[in-house]
Amino acid sequence: MLGFLKKPVVVTAEINLNLVVLTVMGLMSRLWGLSYPRAVVFDEVYYGQFVSLYMKRIFFVDDSGPPLGHMLLALGGYLGGFDGNFLWNRIGAEYSTNVPVCSLRFLPALAGALCIPLAYQILVELQFSHCAALGAALLILLENSLITQSRFMLLESILIFFILLAVLSYLKFYNLQRHSSFSGRWWFWLLLTGVACSCAVGVKYMGLFTYMLLLAIAGLHFWHMLGDRNLSNVSLVCHFLARGLSLLIIPVAMYLSFFYVHLTLLYRSGPHDQIMTSAFQASLEGGLARITQGQPLEVAYGSQITLRNVLGKPMQCWLHSHTNTYPIRYENGRGSSHQQQVTCYPFKDVNNWWIVKDPGMQQLVVSNPPRPVRHGHVVQLVHGITTRYLNTHDVAAPLSPHSQEVSCYIDYNISMPAQNLWRVEIVNRESDTDVWKTILSEVRFVHVNTSAVLKLSGASLPEWGYRQLEVVGEKLSKGYHQSMVWNVEEHRYGKSQEQKEREVELHSPTRMDISKNLSFMAKFTELQWKILTLKNEDTEHKYSSSALDWITMDTNIAYWLHPTSGAQIHLLGNVCTWNSANIAAVVYTCLSLWYLIRRRRKIYDIPEDAWQLWASAGQICVGGWVVNYLPFFLMEKTLFLYHYLPALTFQILLIPIVLQHLSDHLCRSLLSKSMFSALIVAWFSSVCFAYRTFSPVTYGEPLSVAELKDLRWKDSWNILIRKQGH
Amino acid sequence: DGAPPVSALAPRPRAGWRAGLGFVTLLSFVSRFYRLPEPPHVCWDETHFGKMGSYYINRTFFFDVHPPLGKMLIGLAGYLSGYDGTFPFQKPGDRYEQHNYMGMRGFCAFLGSCLVPFAYLTVLELSKSLPAALLTAFILIFDTGCITLSQYILLDPILMFFLMGAVLSMVKCNSCADRPFSASWWLWLSLTGVNLAGAMGVKFVGLFVVLLVGLNTIYDLWDLLGNLSLSLVSCTMELCIGPGDGFFSSAFQSQLIGNNLHNVSIPEHLAYGSVVTMKNLRMAGGYLHSHWHLYPEGVGARQQQVTAYLHKDLNNLWIIKKHDSDTADLLDSSSPVEFVRHGDVIRLEHKETSRNLHSHQHEAPLTRKHFQVTGYGINGTGDSNDFWRIEVVGRRAGKLIKVLRSKIRLTHVATGCILGSSGKTLPKWGWEQVEVTCTPYVKETPNSLWNFEDHINPKLPNISLDVLKPSFLEILLESHMVMIRGNSGLKPKDNEVTSKPWHWPINYQGLRFSGVNETDYRVYLLGNPVVWWLNLFTIGLYLLIAISTAVVLKRGVQLTSEYKGELSRVVLCGGGQVALGWLLHYLPFFMMGRVLYFHHYFPAMLFSSMLTGITWDTLLKFFSQFLSASTTARRVYGGGILALILLIMYSFYLFHPLSYGMIGPMASDPSSPMAGLQWMDSWEF
After folding, report:
1. In whole angstroms, what is the distance from residue A452 CA to residue A427 CA?
2. Of A235, B273, B402, B684, whose CA is between 20 and 30 Å from B427?
3. Residue A315 touches chain B, beta carbons under 8 Å
4. Which residues of A touch B225 (CB under 8 A)?
5. Quick check: A457 contacting B, CB < 8 Å?
6. Residues 6+ positions from B481 with CB-CB distance below 8 Å
7. What residue intervals traverse the membrane (chain B) (predicted)?
8. Residue ranges of the domains in chain A?
9. Is residue B682 part of a domain?
10. Is the predicted ipTM greater than 0.95, yes or no?
11. Under a CB-based contact definition with an 8 Å cutoff, are residues A207 and A162 in contact?
12. B598 interaction partners in chain A (CB closer than 8 Å)
């Protein structure tokens, strides 16, 4: 206590000026003139709409990834006071004055700038010289593609930032491991590794690759610790648990929390509602919730219901019938029952209403107290408007001849008896006496006579069926499939026995009095599942490329073009850096193989600790490049050059590592050392030159036609040259 | 680290192993040949493979995605047993009547029976323990799935025969490693090569076993490299021989694939009036194809469909014409031949329907951003939308166009788009052929490149194709890419309930081989559930044992050296090889987009069964060691193995009707012979 009275408080600060200068330069290169161009650039058109939806708190589903990235972009908008009112419809559209362009682009740019000091420190932690670290940071600083990608409202720079942060914190943690296990700093870096990993995964699923790499490396390091006989079993278990907690449990918890915030923020119904189940939709404000809010929970005999197919493919639809009958003969000559059509209709309609009837009683109203329908009960389904019974029989369905036709029964007196009994099977029941619940219960209707199951076939009927979707009775029901499952969406207790009154009742809007809230985990599972399975149709893009084009940078992406002057912005890398990075990777691989084979024959070319450094640098840099690049060869989605940037970052880090190794171990004489240094200086000036040359298309400075033509170093680059009208 | 010390106490296979081998082989043959002629009608895929066997006997040319060895062997077996190739094999359920089908079924059953002794010997070699080998053999003998799959005219027994043969020879070869270049070493090494070639020649799945052997070889070489007592020369020698296996098999394989271009000679340069087929250059791309059917209403213009079709067909033929004149004068034999040159504007007329290849600004059926390609015009007269500019990639104007070698791009003159194949499968109305579009994105991808494959022009001299044949490596690459990507034509449809890889190890759902209804003779391909669940459980158990063994060894816990050697040799080395085999034959299916079936799991199941034998043997041995008296220990150990075998036999007694046929009500009916055995709702018997 009061120690400061005896001894003065002394703060000794040690500041690495290199690092400070690099950070400042990074900030300048990324933040300079951030609000130019004041127009929608490339994928801003895509992310922008989500930012707007966040501002308006409207729910959406984006299959491209988890929500953290979008939320960070939206945070920028929130801090800038964006109200979300902008129509994101076209690349190149001018921003209106209410859009805070600068603050929307600020966070990605900041993340991009901070990558530079991170790269510096990673090399330092890998035990390479400050000179090599400086080189790595400068190469990242002068990489045109990273600059372009950072300066707009895009996610890659944030992703790369978190990836590098994760790698750095793991390295710091690992280096502390030797002398101060379980110290405060040890815990800090270990936890930060986990947090950064989960943030990387939360921004884009690509982050998963680096996370896996770090897990593998951590596993390997732990395996080496197992061989250390000086460590007791107890301390090993503690180490294992600490790693498990920070590298597995915390990331999962963080990942869940992203979704929690996402779902808390977005509580209004919006354009993507119909992708979700009825239960999910009912939990959103507006939309379905407005209709279903407060409707009775338990379906009873006499209930009026609409039935939605759970699969919702090719589109969401409701079980429907109308007075038209099946044509006596189809185009292909097969016959039908000529009874009333039953279809699945993608729009709300009064003909979607059905009444649940007890086969043993005549009445179509709910008794008092209501008698709920339970799992296994046999019911009849009466079509509200036409009062005909849902029926199926051994007649081939119109488009799926191997299944049974489903109709609303009309008695033609031709020895075709009504077969209209259906057994209700609640698929997601908890016990066999479960009550059929509105929205929540997923129900199969099994036909009592033929054990066919009511199913949406997915085919759309021809003109006579108004192109509505076909509903069939599936005889060979193999296991569970969503096309056979239905849930009650709108529901009310029927009150009128007379047909006339009932029609009025059916037309009237439903009125409600209870609300249902899904638990967070249920919502999360559903949303996560939808994100992973939602398949957008493969869209080919003018600037899409294949993974093989990336190594040599045979492709570019035009991000923005000024409508009148020749100013344009391209995603185009620093040619010199890309080629050097490739060479470095090749040199690293060949040298490592050579060392490995020689070591196996017990010939040691370099000292053991130099070999350890070389190997651990390779694990991170080559490993990072491999895991962030090779998986794209297996992916079927549309690929763009920017997908390569994380891999490129790791590859760039490899250049100074290889250079320092060459100079330390292969240049033996003083003369060769100084020649090597001279070569490096020459090479670095060419990197600077390439940066300077391409910086006009990085920052969007106006260029003349001749200058643009000069920039087209490769035939495959698509640089937009406006034809001059003379 | 050197070789593990083999103590004198380490269990060595006693003389009993010969008797055991004879016994399990006999049982295996009996179980596979029992009721082989039943049912006397075509079952499941017999309709394909029997048909193709017949084609070989009749020398009919056909095209198929599988490599030909398996079907040739089936044909050979049929031929030797007196089958004349006249049965049409039209659809499952057709009765064989007087046709002799037993030769072909017998051949497959013979190969299927060999799996058991192969597995027995492999496990014996890996674990040096007779009970482990016996347990594995009994698992395979009494697995209803393996029996069913061996009893019909299918490729699977042939594939699994070669696969197990390769594994056995590899293991044998490894155990000869202490005396390289000896006679038995050479014998097993060459047998490995032959079996790998055989496996690759039957189905592309054989690639996985090649991978397994390849990894094993690399590991061995690495080991040798570290052995300082060996000179570099002998290392290099081994290096040259080792990978030879894999290479030989691939060469053999490519020979088989290359066959369809063999012995053909065609004119070299493309000329006007020639009749040609055009093949898309994407891997496993199809031929440009058209037929009388129109695009359905609502899909672009209602004109004739143009698709890409994977097989040879008369509808793949197109005539090359000048854009401004008709063929009549070209067919006149007196007129001089005029060659097509790079940059010419041409018209392509479909030979069968006389419509021109046409494109216009309607959206394509599946790839909405592309233009639709149709057949248009009557008797070769169309409009200016039928004009295409033909260009050779990387060539200057005026050069001639070579068949097969030149990569062609067809640019639509009016819209500037490029003819390409998207690789997507059209729905039913397009006969599930592949979509052809005109892409406005001017980019060089294999999708938009074509080459001319057949070329008929009576006015030109033919040259032998050997000159033009793609290089060996190209064929090799293509044949492997076919396997990886080419099966995309078999994509599952949206609402179809398909078999997923995770279903397989839990025996979730089988396959109907024959019969659906109560009155039919039903055979249902389903693994013996007790065996399969035991296998599944053992995989987890093995993982646990392997990890703890590895950790214990790494921590240097004091163990007797005998134990140490045994654990590292059997659990980590032997079990590891088998577990790797299981992974290699199972995991890749998760990445395949094509339609998958239950029977794809059986090669993996073989490895899994061997793992079960090894794991339980080790586990029981380990626990019995804790007992003091050696007689009790032996009794516990023997009793444990016996109990497992009896359990397997009893479950087989319950489930044997699955393989040997069931008649009568379905299992859900209490009066059925299978009543009470439908343990999972998804089983359909």
Report:
1. 16
2. B684
3. no
4. 597, 600-601
5. yes
6. B283, B284
7. 15-34, 61-82, 102-123, 130-152, 186-215, 530-553, 565-584, 604-624, 636-656
8. 17-261, 296-508
9. no
10. no
11. yes
12. none
